[in-house]
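Thread: calcium ion complex, take 2
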Amino acid sequence: MPILRYAVACLITLTLADAALAQDKPDDWLTRLFQPSSTAAVPTPAGGKHQWSGQSGASGNPLMSADAIRAAATDFPNCIAALWPAAESRGITRATFERATGGLTPDLSIMDLLDAQPEFTKSPWGYLDLLVDDERIARGRALLAQYATVFAAAERSYGVDRYILAAIWGVESKYGTMGGDRPVIRSTATLACVGRRRNFFRGEFLSALDIVQRGDVPMQRLVGSWAGAFGPTQFMPSTFERYAVDFDGDGRRDIVDSVPDVIASTANNLKSYGWVRGEGWGYEVVLPPHFDYLLAGHSRQMTVRQWQALGIRRAGDKQFPRPSDRAYLVLPAGARGPAFLMLRNFSVIMKYNPSEAYALAIGHLADRLRGGAPFIQPWPRDERVLTVAERYELQQLLARRGFDIGEPDGLLGPRTRVAIRKFQAATGQIPDGFASSVVLDRLRQP
Ligand code: CA
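Output below.
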């Protein structure tokens, strides 16, 4: 499944688990979230036409130059024809292949999205405001009631918390209302033959053909995001192959139109990623005064009891149910915002989409669906979010001062956060790793 996520936009919270880490949903959910007016959320334009800008991609990759895109588009029929042997060896019939690819043209508008760089970045609180709103909470509760028996059966079979499943449904597609309108065969065929991600998408295209061959999802219902993620919980075709299940027993794994299949397939996916039955995702916690912020981050795993010994308590004066669980500390907005102890299941959610911001939104929406309250500690809403240009500048200034940030990429991954911490510690600031405008201003001083 793995794929390189190129554009992670959310301020600091996004831990690019590892740039090379694979994942199921390449780029598309981010594009949805950060450019909600330009992609999947958009109603189908007249005739379903999406237009390519005709511009070279921002990545600078030679395969993304306008000339290379045009040349690949011209060669598209040959490229598709050359995929027949691989399809045949997977058991796809000639009839299916021709039905799926006959007269197919590339959707070049996808090239603009493949290289899209979000101009604006969202703060952790902006991200949560967007995804955990009253409408999503109300709709999610209604669906949990409507499909209570299905959720209960999926919980029994897979051990995954129904509120997490509903939250994924809500965040990925706003409960199936924003899943995208692009034919998956066409999108994956385009990406398999045009642009800089061909190897990855060749597999996705073949997996999409498998779905059509088996008749799990009718071809006309196989529509989704520009990157080929489809259905209410946005499975990539290869994810479908691995994890989709027929839960309503009609013989088809229909993760587009069968709610039982959607819920159980998503549960099966999380179970396969290591979901721990009966455990939550994490806790909002309150740090003691003079806390050592260098202890935050994924690399420091301790038991909840050990964290308690350092003076950390659960927000709202609640008890930790299982003090022996291992957890790590996350400060999405630095020392001025809420803190969280994250459990194993938080990492499982991050396998679904490798972003701390995403996983926090899923966990929090799940808690709200369950009847939980908003976070207790306030976000530093007066804090200004750095632009992409400023994040590059921040990285360059850190590098100039001898801190190791790798190649400046405009992303604030773990390495950059460590560098920020070291700089903060060296200059008498609280070393919380948060890329605030204060840190940037301080770096700009000689
Ligand atoms: Ca079914």
